[in-house]
Amino acid sequence: MRWRGIMLTVSGALALAACHAKQAEVTLPRPVIAVVVHRDSKPVLATLPGEVNARYATPLSFRIAGKLIERNVRLGDTVTAGQVIARLDPDDAQRSLASAQAQLMAAQHRLGFAEQQLDRDRAQAQEQLIAMAQLEQTQDAYVAAVAQRDQALQQFALLKNQTEYTVLTADHAGVITAEDADTGQNVAAGQAVYHLAWSGTVDILCDVPESLLTALTVGSAASVSLPAVTGRRFTAHVRELSPAADPGSRTYRAKLTLDAPGPEVRLGMTATVTFADAAGDAQADDPITLPATALFHEGNAPAVWVVRPGDHALELRRVQLGRYDDRTISISQGLNDGERVVLQGVHTVSAGETVRAVAPLHPEDFAS
User: Fold this and answer.
1) Which of 304, 307, 299 is nearest to 321 (CA)?
2) What is the Cα–Cα distance from 307 to 346, expressed in whole angstroms?
């Protein structure tokens, strides 16, 4: 009986301790991902869709006509400068070169004979053994032989070049973006076989409405985001602005150069181009840009969760949205600079709940 009483006492103490531990665990503040927000440094003029393009893209073609017998690269392949990418049947070009070489040898032989005859006639003319008219004829034959040699030499050089033109090489490093001829096809001189986009400088193409023309000039800065490259924004500058509007869309084509594109930026990607007011500074009524994951609703009104600075409790704050983007929202009213806003898990918290604000593990995932 004594031991039974001791065991009951110990069991009760352990159960009470477990209850206290469980109660203490429940009352701990809940961690939430939240950051201090600030107003945008410059007002946004416009956000436009764009596309990644190479600055230079050229068709690759043979200089002579012929039958395409070999293709060494395919669509999407990366090539280097001087790399052989295609060949024509060289038989006709080689035969023409051999014929030109034979004509050059004959012309050189005739020139040698004419030079020897000229030397003999000059010696005999000094001894007055031949008439001056015969010497003049010999000199004329020598001049004609020199011209025939020069003509044969130029023809040989031309046909030698044409033999080399049966090999198509890439003149710049880049990526093959199109295939325009198949093996076995007879191609004409200048007919495109491939299209090559040069590597290096990358442009962003976008169409600007006429309402922005007064605010944009060559050299204007822009911020570029790519849906395929999440968590990163690129800086770009306007390189070229079309002087005339497109007849169909009535917009002006702008070409922007990315400052540091990186290998993750690929041709053909879609882009979002944001132009900011270069003359604007942050004002009290400037918007605050947040990730779209921070958006919640109170009834039909948009709202965000704000962590109160005093008791660290959550407050559902109605806000007014100025703009929706693919990954961000722009809040024009309802938030103050320096307040802490919940960025993730907005559907799992409740008003008045005490929380512990935690910075994002990967801040670039929530970059605006």
Assistant:
1) 304
2) 12
> What DSSP letter does each residue of 292-346 carry, written as one string?
GGG-EEETTEEEEEEE-TTT-BEEEEE-EEEEE-SSEEEEEES--TT-EEE-S-T
Residue 332's pLDDT band, with cuts at 50, 70 and 90, is confident
How confident is residue 103, by pLDDT bands cut at 50, 70 and 90?
very high
Which residues neighbour 106 within 8 Å (Cβ) at sequence distance 6 or greater?
Answer: 152
Amino acid at 304: V
Q: Give me the domains of the chain, ranges plus CATH numbers.
A: 28-41+284-366 (2.40.420.20), 45-55+200-276 (2.40.30.170), 58-88+169-198 (2.40.50.100), 91-164 (1.10.287.470)
Amino acid at 85: I
Backbone angles phi and psi of 126, in degrees to 5: -65, -30
Under 8 Å CB-to-CB from 140, ≥6 apart: which residues? none
Round to whole Å and give the CA distance between 195 and 170: 10
The closest of 91, 36, 86 to 62, measured between CA atoms, is: 86
Long-range contacts of 307-311 (CB under 8 A, 24+ apart): 307/32, 307/34, 307/339, 307/340, 307/341, 307/342, 307/355, 307/357, 309/340, 311/354
Angle formed at CA 170 by CA 164 and CA 174, multiple of 5 degrees: 180
pLDDT in tens, 214-268: 888 898 888 888 888 876 788 899 999 999 999 998 999 999 998 888 888 888 8
Indicate if the alpha-carbon torsion angle 298, 300, 304, 310 is positive or negative. Answer: negative
pLDDT confidence of residue 23: 47
* Of 359, 330, 325, residue with least CA distance to 342: 359
